Amino acid sequence: MTTPSKQEQILQVHASLINMVVETIHNTQLRPQLSQVLKTSAENGWENLVLRIYKILEGDRSEKLIQDLDEEDAVIIEAILSGIQNPNTLPDPEKPQSNPAMAAPGIAHMVNQASTGNTQALTLVSHMAEQMSHAGGDMTLLSAIIKKLIDGERDPEVLSKGMGAQGESLVNSILEELGKIQLH
To answer: For 37-60, what is the mean pLDDT?
Structure first.
């Protein structure tokens, strides 16, 4: 299996947020839930992204929304704008659960970077863990072990405690990827 591109990894990590924004545009009753997610995101350092999302919610669909954003935020905004025009382009929020091996390289790289003190990676992995905590099941358990991974825990039995086969597979894949990274 090939490693997903950086853009695919960004879309995968933020699929639930992207979908939530597009769903809220079509159903304004969802706005309070989205507002809470956006508030938390802004508090975690995603102010530029949150401001652009609010502009989209207010009806702005211009390409200038992407100007002056970092690569990750630009990918997210582009996905939201594309999803508004064609919902078939939206990333599948269930994809990380249905294909754990695809998420492992991205998670491993973020964990590795965060463990070296990279604040951008730490912010990203924290946001990702927060999103996973709302997914339920093994994803919720995985979100709870992200800090252990950053702190250097590598025992698969400790990390996958209480998880099903799919969660254990994802943990093992992350550990395998971390091993590859640390060899370089």
So the answer is: 89
Cα-based distances in Å from 63 to 66, 72, 76: 6, 16, 13
Provide the domain limits for residue 135. 95-183
**Same domain as 79, residue 100:** no
Residues 99 and 152 in one domain: yes
Confidence of residue 1 (pLDDT cuts 50, 70, 90): very low
Place of tokens 């969660």: 167
For the chain, the domain total comes to 2
